[in-house]
Amino acid sequence: MTTSTDAPEAQTSPQAPRERPVGIGLLGWLRWGWRQLTSMRTALVLLFLVALGTVPGSFLPQRGLAPEKVSQFFQDHKTLAPWMNRLSLFDVFSAPWFAAIYILLFISLAGCVLPRSWQHYQHIRSRPPKAPRNLARLPQTATYETEAAPDEVLAEAAKVLKDRRFRVDSHDDHVAGEKGYLRETGNLVFHLALLVLLFAVGSGAAFGYKGNVIVTEGEGFSNALTSYDAFKGGKAFSSSHLPPFTVWLDSFKAAYLPDGPDRGQPTAFSAKIRYQKDLKTSVRPYDLQVNHPLNIDGARVYLLGHGYAPQFTVRDGKGQIAFQGAVPFLPMNEATYASEGVVKVPDAQPDQLGFIGLFWPTAVPDAQGKVTSAFPAAWNPQVALFAFKGDLGLSNGAPQSVYRLDTAKLKPLLMGNKVKPLAVGNTETLPGGAGSITFNGYRQYITLQVNHDPGRVPALAAGIVAILGIVTSFLVRRRRVWVRARADEGGRTVVEVGGLTLGGATPEFDAIAERLREAAPPTPDEE
Amino acid sequence: MVDTHLASLSNQLMLGAVLVYVVTMVAYAGELAFARRRADAEVPADRPRVLVGAGGPETDEAAETDDAETTEAEAEETDEPASGRRQLDWGRFAILMNVVGWGLHGAEIVTRGMAADRVPWGNMYEFVSAISFAAVTVYLVMLWRYKVNWLGPFLMVAVVIALGIATIWLYNDPGPLRPALHSYWIAIHVTAAVTATGTFTVAGVATALYLIKSFVTVRPGGILSRVPSMEALDTTAHRVIMFAFPIWTFAIIAGAIWADSAWGRYWGWDPKETWSFITWIGYAGYLHARATAGWRGRKAAVVSLIAFGCLLFNFFGINYLVSGLHSYAG
Ligand code: HEM
């Protein structure tokens, strides 16, 4: 809590009790532990620990964000990586130790804020506290003498304070005023909102899901678990929650800067899609763009990425067409879109065929005469194919990545210098009568992400409330003012004004004191 | 698309702004060097005028109120008439130059935006320029409200260094934005982030002075003796951070809303997200530390500077060292 100094009477609970429990049994220890946990110092330490805990997550590759980089790391650091893995350093944000810290923080925060909210509620309903015996000991004080009677002085004081929207209590010899309850209210609202935010984020993750899928131009995808290339459901997710929509990609367009120092930088992506909510509704068009996801039934569909899918026709050793279609290649380089992919032809006879391909959207020879890509748009598309024959290893039932060729039982057919780039329409004949492959052209594909997170709206609301709360609490100050008036022997009235502003003095006190002094008729010797 | 005349005008304005800022810096330094000794600089600021009672801060509560803030401005005010012509001239000249430099700087940003036909914060050069502009603006407002002249020379050093780095190493011709940035959220999110960063910079300068002052013995007549009391430094830094913290919070939330439509999730521990979270915690920690017994003062100041370090790292380190969704440094 930010403002423990501002609420002296609330300090009893949040401050760390220093005394040890001496001979007080289990209950005493529990109470002591609870006090420790909910003390502000502990909350502070936990807060710093959370921050510290996220640091490795920003430097080490994380499975949730970049699984391929994690495997690379494992290859590069053979002994270290398994140890780091044991410490969940590649899944920092779902690591048990990370969860432990933030759950403790959550409890600590709740244990601090909830009782304090209750105290504050009671405090709001209570009256301003009576004046301390010695007003002169307060940080802001003023005294003056006047001819006016004490009653009149006090009545005037009550009026001045009420005009300034103080809550005022009149006592026999003094008036007590207090205002600025909104400060603590704002502060508590901020902290409660943070609790709600944490809760919304957590439950949203538990009930939500997120999946990625590649859709090639002219093809479609229906929202079912089996359609996804990658899918992650929260702990409380069940596949019956997936709304049954279908999406088709008609065409995709990317625009790039054609020249200048940032040549090749993308300037616009747009995917023309059609979608159908369920079989009973009609098909609708949508222009899917970055920053403009499509909402269907609580699921949101995002355009995340794109790539090229070269089209091939493969004839086998018997001259039959064994494969025909577009194969998505993964971009290896964002600036040139040089891409890599694999063509598997399990139906080829007598031997299965496999190819590892490179695709260059704008193929140009480099200094050594090798081919590279000079631009991300497809100005001069070419492919190069390394060919294999033999057993693709698909029959043993083990799942295989579509982007990897398992070459264990394959025999190379075309390798090294024999591999020549093919332009659109070219055919490469495989040696030994194994067949041929034709490069027919290309289609583009897009990577879609579909997700659902029921916590997003509550989290947003909590975030906005948190800001409003903290701003209120920073703008308002709680202040108390007491005015005491008593008659002295000479028949004059001595007025004492005392002010206590929690969290820093304000000029307001001076204005009040000035105003009171002006209103009161002065004593003769003052003139 | 890009108006090259306006773009080169913008570059010339930047050059002009930097030159004028350098003059400002020298003038402030002159003010520091020639100003009359402020013997009272070290005396804790006195109590409000109406105060009659003699009670010192004896109670716990009183000890926690920092009354330095209201009086500091007054102390400064009463100081001025007696301070001789030399100081007046240097000081006035510095402020005049500062405002002129600020105007050129603002014009540089506006023409840059017009040249590229978009918000003028789309690459590192533009971010640094905008952040510096925010810092100078906050300083000028505080100069007007709270008479914080002492902050001027130190802030100007920081601004001149930042703009120098921006023009020499980070310069990029204006150009269109990449698709992920095609959203009105860039105006909201980045403006908030830039404003908060500039404001935190002002607080960082005050906090650094506070720490230096707490370690170095102040020679009478030395530069440090012209910097106000430690309470006043602490109060200034605190006040500025209280202003920047909600804006930073807002920038993060706006970023989350934007990420929700651009990247398919509102929070995903992308490196930039992670470090803005760390920075947020750092400043939240500072605000708490300042209010916790045993952490007030030097320790809280250290926390605040660490948070500022995280902010800088988030800006330079993450943009250049770590690749993430947020890497627009190119
Ligand atoms: C939860 C999500 C996000 C968070 C927490 C976040 C946080 C931040 C922060 C703290 C800054 C200031 C950077 C600094 O001073 O170092 C920043 C800057 C920026 N953000 Fe975000 N942001 C988020 C999402 C986004 C999104 C979705 C975009 C655009 C697609 C975006 C674009 C930018 C740009 C262009 C800048 C200025 C350049 C920079 O400093 O890198 N942000 N963001």
Automatic annotation (TrEMBL), chain A:
Keywords: Cytochrome c-type biogenesis, Membrane, Transmembrane, Transmembrane helix. The keyword Transmembrane helix applies. One of its GO terms (biological process) is cytochrome complex assembly. It is found in: Membrane. It is a multi-pass membrane protein. Signal peptide: none annotated. Residues 40-501 form the ResB-like domain. The chain crosses the membrane at residues 43-60, 97-118, 188-209, 457-476. GO terms for cellular component: membrane. It comes from the Bacteria. Coiled coil: none annotated. Pfam families: ResB (PF05140). InterPro entries: Cyt_c_bgen_Ccs1/CcsB/ResB, ResB-like_domain. The keyword Calcium does not apply. This is Cytochrome c biosynthesis protein. It comes from Actinoallomurus iriomotensis.
TrEMBL record, chain B:
Signal peptide: none annotated. Residues 48-84 are annotated as: Disordered. It is found in: Membrane. GO terms for molecular function: heme binding. InterPro entries: Cyt_c_assembly (IPR002541), Cyt_c_biogenesis_CcsA (IPR017562), Cyt_c_biogenesis_CcsA/CcmC (IPR045062). Keywords: Cytochrome c-type biogenesis, Membrane, Transmembrane, Transmembrane helix. Pfam families: Cytochrom_C_asm. One of its GO terms (biological process) is cytochrome complex assembly. This is C-type cytochrome biogenesis protein CcsB. It comes from Actinoallomurus iriomotensis.
